[in-house]
Amino acid sequence: MNYVEKLEAAAATNPAKVAIIWDDPDGPPVEVTYAELIADISRFANALRRLEVRPGDRVALMLNNRPEFPAVYYACGKIGATVVLVNTLLKKDEIDYILKDASCRFLVTNAKGCEEAAALFAGGADGVGLAIAPRSRIISVDPVDDTLYYRDLIEAEEPVAPSYDAEPDEVPEIKYTSGTTGHPKGVMHTHRNIVRFTEMLESVFPAEDNDRVLCFMPLYHGFGDMSMLHPTLFGGGTIILQDPFDPNRVLAAVERHRATIMGAVPAVFWVLLNTPGAEKYDISSLRYVMSGGQSIPEETLNEFEKRFGCTVYEGYGLTESTAGSASGLPGMPRKIGSVGVPLPGVEVRIADVSGPDAGHTNTPAAPGARGEVLLRTELNMLGYLGKPAETAEVLDADGWLHTGDIGYLDEDGYLFIVDRLKEMIIMTGENIYPSELENVIAQHPAVAQVAVVGAPDPRRGQVPKAVVTLRPGTSLGDGDLESWCKERMAPFKVPRIVEVRESLPLTPSGKIAKKEL
Question: Would you state the pLDDT for residue 94?
Fold first, then answer.
């Protein structure tokens, strides 16, 4: 079961079709057909073999959204190597940790990545986790002195290559978590994970012949590769690669390339709604937008669908379960606040969190009660690289993945995510869920964005703190937001601290970076 065979099957059906459109920010769009993509994958696979990369070896990929990314990614899978995805925003020490932790043999990057990695080599070969002669272990897609040039490597190879006959539970990809606590952990995804997830998405979101998927989400992120890249190419569609995110370029790309599907995190919806001149773009080709990462405020969701004339499907997933586990689906009624229903093949359980074993038990909670969301599915990761103890904390003996999210299932089987177990605020024994407060505060006419976090309090342990940005031309007086909240929520939930900022910090995947608040 080599997942790359699904891409090769799609390419064989229509080799002349455009597989990739790169919306190059520095030049005209670049188109790559399926035949050209398969040839580049094979050439780079042959180059890796010539460089003595063997099945099970690890190759780090730190690259922005451009055609070389899928070529390198799939070439690694084709020869049985493991691609280790590295966030392009990471700095020297963070890169160093991942390269060492995964024992990477090569690093594939661009000129910017070479600059960041150069600092690793100042102290010689011992300063990095790569094997011998570190400078010669960098493959750059841009010409950079003392590195291996990607274009030279593939042009010296044949456009056909044999595929490795992989076992379903071999690991073709490692994706590092964001590292909210301590060092990031390498999540090991299997061939089975990738194949089953794309089959699952195809069963509920069937592709159409003219589908063109706009992807500005980073391909090193699960939303980018698992939810957008693989399903699009395995289904024979066209993916439009773009970055960095710019709202006008996004809207222009939809119009120019007639994109039919787009993926975004909630912060993007707000930005697009508040982009001056957005109405001048013709985006009537969009069929739907997939959203994940965090819930979208009801007002933002309704306004986006009304103004842009397309349906938004909210979903839920995490890196440890490949990407998606639940979603709103075509033809099913929407329930505001819900992330939809479990996807086919995903079993969801709400576990009791009322006792001292909260987060460490799979005992079911009472029907309709809130508890920790557990997942049992073929999409669950193999484990964390080199961390059996940490793996055992989240993957129990019965096959349940403990997500750390608090949620509940309603009588119709819709899943509602209330908050992160670790973000839950406990004030004098009362459990307060930040997302519940955020949904209320987001309805205030002056509030543009909001994040609620727990602030230390010597008497009550923690108190809720609301950090907000304001809509243009509005203001908040002392006590205004608190008074507004008192009319709409229980007294113990009302924020004790309100902070107004010009902007909220975001993670690379577009989520609000609460740990910076």
Answer: 81
